[in-house]
Write a structure and sequence with these properties.
Length: 160
């Protein structure tokens, strides 16, 4: 078990290092409670995390054209995304029970589009120009919280 954790940490560190140097990071994890983290500083970032099983994802992007895509399938998934810069965009798809999405964006062209199924909670905070949030929560008792400070703010929230 310790060897598996060390190997996973090495893979994540390597993916994170490549993401910082080349502006792109892609982590695809199979089933089983894994944690994935991508941190990018610079410009032109693209981070993609695919997870199956109870998992945690973290994306931190500082620069200009930040795009984060997180796809999680299974119970107990958590995604935390922080972006600062100008072209911030988050695409999130969480399915399963007990999902949590937390997004913080500071910059100008902020956009969040999320779909959640399960016991879902989405929290989005945007500060900056052309803010847009679209969240579809397909559950009973799901929660959506949005704070927008700036101009051009738009929120579309659907709960079933």
């Amino acid at each position: 078990m310790t060897k598996l954790i060390l190997l996973l940490m090495l893979c994540i560190w390597t993916a994170g290092a490549g993401a910082q140097d080349m502006g792109s990071g892609d982590i695809d994890l199979g089933s089983g409670g894994y944690a994935a983290s991508i941190s990018q500083t610079g410009s032109g970032h693209n981070a993609v995390i695919d997870q199956i099983g109870a998992s945690a994802a973290s994306v931190i992007q500082q620069g200009s054209s930040n795009t984060a895509t997180v796809r999680q399938e299974g119970g107990g998934n958590t995604a935390r995304i922080s972006q600062s810069g100008s072209g911030n965009e988050v695409l999130a798809d969480q399915s399963g029970g007990g999902n949590l999405l937390t997004v913080g964006q500071t910059g100008s062209s902020n956009r969040v589009q999320a779909t959640q199924t399960g016991g879902a909670t989405a929290t989005v905070q945007q500060t900056g120009g052309s803010n847009l949030v679209i969240v579809d929560t397909l559950v009973n008792g799901g929660a959506i919280g949005v704070t927008q400070i700036g101009s051009g703010a738009t929120v579309t929230a659907t709960q079933f």
